[in-house]
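FIELD: query
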Amino acid sequence: MDLKNQKVLVLGLSKSGIAAAKLAKKRGADVFLTEGKTEVNKDNVAELEALGIHVEFGGHSEEFIKGSEFAVTSPGIPPHSEIMQKLNALNIPVISELELAYKNSKTPFIIITGTNGKTTTTALTEHILSKKLKVRACGNIGQPPCDMVDDGLDYFVCEASSFQLEMSPTLKAFVSVWTNFTPDHIDWHQGLENYFNAKAKIFTGAQTAPYSVLNAKDEKLLDFSKKVAGTVFMFADNIGDNCCYVENNEIVFKQNGVVEPIVALKDCPIIGEHNYQNIMCGIICAKLAGLDNETIKQAIIEFKAPPHRLEKILEKDGITYYNDSKATNPEASIVAINSFNNTDVALIAGGRDKNTDLTEFCESVKNHIKTVILIGEATERFEAELRKNGFDNIIREKTMQDAIDRGASLNPDVVLLSPACASFDMFTGYEQRGDIFREYVLSRV
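FIELD: result
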C-alpha cells in the first residue's frame, strides 16, 4: 500500500487510532486525526503533533475531512454515525486499523473471531505458538497490529471483533477461527444478519483463508461450514477428516483422517466445555503453524486463563471464587454456568441490561445454580424472569462487596461472578468490575 504524500484521515484518539496514525505517517502519508470528544489525553496529542500529525478534537471539521484518500476508523464508531454518513456522502472509503496493518505488512494473520471465547483462544494460541515462533497477540487483546508491522513476526495472532471485520474489505488470514455465534452488537450492526455477515467475510469469497476453523457444536456455523472454501477444520466433534474433539477424556487432533492424541482433560488448566473448545482452536492453529505435539501439550498445561474469563481467584474454607466478569451477555454466562455440575454454586449476576432473551439463561440457572445474588440495574427484570421460569432462590444486594459477603455466608462450593450484563451502571467496564471482585475476595482472606 503506497501511502506516500496521500492524505489519510484517522477517526478517534483511541489506542488503535494512535497506532494507525503513526503507521500511516511512517509510510509517508499526511495524517489528520480527528476526535469528537472534547476531553482528551493531551500527552497523546503532543506526541502525535511532534511527529507531524495534525490533530483536532471536539468535533470533525471540513478541513480535516476533505480531500482524504481514505479514513481509518476506530471500532467504537458505528457505521450509521454522523461522521460515517458524512464520509460516505463524500465517497471517502473507510477501513479498520486491522485492514491498514494487513495492507502494510507481509506477516500472516491468524484471525480469531466469535461472540464469546475470542480472548481466551487468542491468548492461548499466542502462548502455544510463542514456544517455537515469534508471535504476538493483537487486535482486541494486546497492542494494535499497526504497532507491530515492522517487528519481524512469524504471525499476528489477532482477536478481531465484528466491528473491525466489517471495515476490513481485503483482509485475508492464514487461518480464520470462528469460536461461536450468538446475538450481540445488534444495535451497532443494525440487525442480526449484518452481525453474522460481518464475521463471515473472512471465510468467504476473495477473503477466504487457506484454513478455516469452525465450531461443530454451533448449528449455524456447522451449516455455514459447508459454504466455506479452502480447508475446513471443525472442532468440538468428530466430523470429517480434519477436526479436533474429545475422545476418552483426551483432546485429539485429526488431519487427513490421521488421529493424534494431544492432551488429557485432567491436565487442562482451564475448565468447562467452552474452554476445552478454546483449547481445540489453539491446537489446530498450532498444528497448522507446524508445532509438534509435545510442545503443544506442555504449553497448554502451563497456560493461565486471562483475567475476567472464568478466572479462578481463590480457594478458601471449601469455597472457590471465580471471576467471569467478561460475561457481559446471557450467552456468555450460560457457558460459565454450564461448566459446573453437581456443585453448590452461588451466582452473582446483574448490571446494565442488554434486554436480550433470558429463557436459556434461566434454564441453565435452574440446572446448575443453587442461589442467585442480583446487583445493578437489571435486578428487577432478571428476578421476574427467573421466578417466571420456576427459580425462586434469589437474593438482592446493593454492592459487589455485599454480594460476595452474602455468597460466602451461604457456604457454597463456588461463588461465581458471571453477570450476563454490561457493567456501566456501577463500573467503568467489565475489567474494573472483575478487579473489584478479585480485590475484595482476596482482602477477605
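FIELD: remark
The chain is about 35% helix and 20% strand.
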